[in-house]
């Protein structure tokens, strides 16, 4: 196999610039069109934005290591701000943790949650349907996961107020230590300490995912420290992303009234609408991998030790994969294969829970809301790696 | 309401038993030729045939011959101690020169293209792996086989495989010498772009499934052979699936999955690995009984029979119609 090598396109624009973050897609399209692999001067890392290259980096976990962390700096070279998570480890350390987590979160355990997860969605959407409009983020997307997910993990009420700020820290740390990062870490120590306390065995109820993860310590599969880290991973990865997933889905559907009408007629399509919305407005937009051995990707030489910034959200809009209408929402599209949950070894373990939460909220809203449309400009969140909104005002008409 | 007519009864082929060999203790290997002297239809690695036995039983056996020569087929049959007539009949009653009716080859264990492969076989579970090795070797892929068994004299084709591919690629692990397959050593370190194909007894596959939870989703492909030889075995008939949300009825032919059949009929099903592993295509069963072939549901879930993975699972033997919430 002979590959013609070429130099990467050089980009001076900073993907972590607040202006780019607020409206990322024009930049991402330029990045995708510039070539298979680009070099970002602002971060000193390579970048991949096409589906093919993103897929390759995600699935070749031997060449593209996670142990260097998901941020622009190699966490093995610095004093990391916290012990590495499952997301920041490679096999074989990753392997036992993944086994433990997959043993706990699987179709059987998640299915049992549909019952307890439904009433809070009914309650929230019933109240909102009585109004003429509401904020889809602050009144719904931010409320629902916090009502159901911490209970499913089985952590105490006390300290839950730290979950959102902590998640905000964890994900912002996958970007550079810029102003956004510093804002997120303003009261970092207090949030981190409170969440770590919630992860301890004695904090768990007896039936939740937390207790089941701790049971894997008794089985001898993982250590106590690993159990703490796995519960921490659930708590840090399981709330924000789902909030953004719900918010982003509603931001898309508010712009596509025909799709809403179609979904009202056929609410079993809700899960496809969520899937397509996740493709179009992926909550987790980007993170880094570390090149473990000298390699060639898309004809560009990458040296061991360098970082690659992986643009999931750009791959999910690559016209070479999704067609010329990749930037639009289509209920008829099969969005199977999108990388919003990652792909391969580190693919989101909580995916079935997140999908179910999003589907339940959407179905309950569809049942009670006849039409939904934007009532003012949505306010994007300025976040290093997550894509979502601070505020998304909508006006609605209630279903009769 | 469109209803496709069931096209039942898979084509059968009359064969003559060319030879009965005993490549290992308690293993009979049957070489079959077509009675009409024609070639067998081309088949894919991983395929099996139904064998129609004189006592009315139908049994499935994996093909373990070379796909290069379509003039003959070979199957390997283990005599199981509690056999109620399948393997015992093959061992005791079938002789060279006799005729045997079989089905055309079908594939429930297809080989998906990948850069690297890890094959794991337990005992007679080696049979479907043999044509796979031939295929990946011809394609120049990187691969290794771990073949475990009680002792060398019970392990069919072990010597043949070592001679063909060498001991670098073919690792024979006889329990009486080296102990059981060390799955921690083999599967404890996941590899990128490597698929795992495993065939063997339920206990071994359960342990492999557990280890593969630490691998990327979708890498593991398994075929469970029914060791106890009780009951009617897997359902080999086409069956109907009614989609309760639309009232549409589709026929699922023997060579396709429920997922493929309902997608062809225009229904939408969320799916991901299409290999019974990720659980994405879980579908509620309104009525009827499923034969679960996935690795995603727990045994309790399978017994409860309320949901199924439509990418691999099928209607149970004797259930000609499943009603699914689709």
Automatic annotation (TrEMBL), chain A:
Belongs to the cytochrome P450 family. Keywords: Heme, Iron, Metal-binding, Monooxygenase, Oxidoreductase. SUPFAM superfamilies: Cytochrome P450. InterPro entries: Cyt_P450, Cyt_P450_CS, Cyt_P450_E_grp-I, Cyt_P450_sf. Coiled coil: none annotated. It comes from Glutamicibacter ardleyensis. It comes from the Bacteria. This is Cytochrome P450. CDD domains: CYP199A2-like. PANTHER family: CYTOCHROME P450 YJIB-RELATED, P450, PUTATIVE (EUROFUNG)-RELATED.
From TrEMBL, chain B:
Transmembrane segments: none annotated. Residues 6-112 form the FAD-binding FR-type domain. Keywords: 2Fe-2S, Flavoprotein, Iron, Iron-sulfur, Metal-binding, Oxidoreductase. Residues 239-326 form the 2Fe-2S ferredoxin-type domain. Its cofactor is FAD. It comes from the Bacteria. Pfam families: Fer2, NAD_binding_1. This is Ferredoxin. It comes from Glutamicibacter ardleyensis.
